From TrEMBL:
Residues annotated as domain Insertion element IS402-like: 3-37
The name this protein goes by in its record: Insertion element IS402-like domain-containing protein
Pfam family, any one: DUF4096
Region feature (Disordered): 61-85
Membrane-crossing residue ranges in chain numbering: 99-126
Polar residues: bias regions: 61-79
Domain of life the protein comes from: Bacteria
Lineage: Bacteria, Bacillati, Actinomycetota, Actinomycetes, Kitasatosporales
Keyword Membrane among record annotations: yes
Keywords, comma-separated and alphabetical: Membrane, Transmembrane, Transmembrane helix
């Protein structure tokens, strides 16, 4: 897995032919099967924890990942805070941990700009989300969701 990232052509011989597996996965991706499974599992996790089925708040976080020297220059940037050259993963997560949305950018994209960009798909897919807390101090992260609900910033990842 470290070498190849599990491409279809490296499936074990006791599995279906790689082209068949690939075609099923592509069809399921197109039909939204993976999204439906993710939503169902998130709902089951929340209910098992005694929470409502839909999240009412989320956390925003980011992580800089170094890229190889062969990565295209427009796909990477320099994270000035960490002085890393690479890409940045911006995550919107349920307060229990399950992922809500992901945005991958060049590392030079500011945490605040990406955080605000993450809010639109979260607000569209989860209208019940009314608050978002950034994982670090970031007073400009406070924004109004497209649905009109106020999304407020926490301080240093702390939640009330």
């Amino acid at each position: 897995m470290d070498r190849t990232g599990v491409p279809c052509r490296y499936l074990p011989h006791d599995c279906a032919p790689w082209a068949t597996v690939y075609n099923y996965c592509a069809k399921w991706q197109q039909d939204g099967v993976f999204e439906q499974l993710t939503r169902l599992l998130r709902r089951l996790v929340r209910e098992a924890e005694g929470r409502g089925a839909e999240p009412s708040a989320c956390e925003l976080a980011s992580q800089t990942v170094k890229t190889s020297a062969t990565a295209h220059p427009t796909d990477q940037g320099t994270d000035t805070g960490k002085r890393n050259i690479g890409r940045k993963r911006h995550l919107g997560c349920d307060t229990l941990g399950p992922l809500l949305t992901v945005l991958v950018t060049a590392a030079s994209i500011a945490y605040t700009a990406a955080g605000v960009t993450l809010l639109s798909p979260i607000a569209a897919a989860y209208p019940s989300v009314r608050k978002a807390w950034p994982k670090r101090t970031c007073s400009d992260c406070a924004a109004t969701a497209p649905s009109g609900g106020l999304l407020t910033a926490g301080s240093c990842g702390s939640r009330p």
